[in-house]
Amino acid sequence: MELQATCDGLVLCEFCGVNSESAKDESSVLRVVLVGPPASGKGSQAKVLADELGLFHLSTGSAIRDHMARGTELGERCREYMSQARLVPDEVAMEVVDDEVGEHGGGGFVLDGFPRTLHQAELLDQWMRERGQELDAVIVLDVMQADLEARVARRVLCGGCGQPLRLGGRVNSMNDACPDCGGELVRRTDDDVNVFRGRFQEYLDMTVPVIDHYAEIGKLRRVDGSRLPDDVSRSILDLLKPDTQEK
Ligand SMILES: [Zn+2]
After folding, report:
1. What's domain 29-142+220-246's superfamily in CATH?
2. Catalytic residue (choose from 70, 170, 188, 247)
């Protein structure tokens, strides 16, 4: 879809009518990709970044789930792949990005979960070229595998109220009860160390080539993701903000 420029230079979304004021000055629009291994905190960092800088946050995973829940044609196609335990093809993932970012990303965006493969990165680069745009930065959260495994091992959920908890935080062992509702603690299958290792290997095989690609073209920025979430957020914002202020 197209953004329509109004006579006073504001850019109006044709569908939702939202003003993307920042879109009037193309040079101030930030387009960022956040990359990181599973359990690196990439999703929460993307959210902070979007809130702080007024960017549209697209998590392709949630966008796909949302399309499936709404029963859109795109969602139905994704459901077919997923019901056969197949990955959504790169082209289809790109369609999701095109749809969502095309509609809401006029004032800048942060992508989380895309591109996951080198081919997806090439599709994204081409899509942006066609629109006369380019990414400002691809930020990778560096966390050692051992640190990630330790994080995963500490993650538990309350089986009663469903809240995420951390061993060594408000609870100390699986035998403790939820401090809020007294419910029993459970683990998500995702938080099994073997499931994690499979996903980490997938990251090394499929996503590290994406990182190499953006390093080659000078777009890559590395952030130490092993620190406290607030410190990680600050580093990411420091990387991006001087840029926006200069322009
Ligand atoms: Zn609970």
Report:
1. P-loop containing nucleotide triphosphate hydrolases (3.40.50.300)
2. 188
Residue-level pLDDT at 7: 41
Q: What is the pLDDT of residue 188?
A: 83
| Centroid of ligand 1 to alpha carbon of 163 (angstroms) | 6
Q: Considering the entire predicted model, what is its pTM?
A: 0.81
31 in catalytic set: no
65 is in an annotated binding site: yes
Higher pLDDT, 95 or 27: 95
Q: What's the CA-to-centroid distance between 147 and ligand 1, angstroms?
A: 26
Cβ atoms 165, 156 nearer than 8 A: yes
Burial (CB count <10 Å: 0-12, 13-18, 19+), residue 149 = middle
Mean of per-residue pLDDT scores for the chain:
88
Every domain of the chain and the residues it spans: 29-142+220-246
Q: What is the pLDDT of residues 101-128, one digit of tens each?
A: 999 988 999 999 999 999 999 999 999 9
Tell me the CA–centroid distance for residue 162 and ligand 1, in Å.
6
- Is 62 a known ligand-binding residue? no
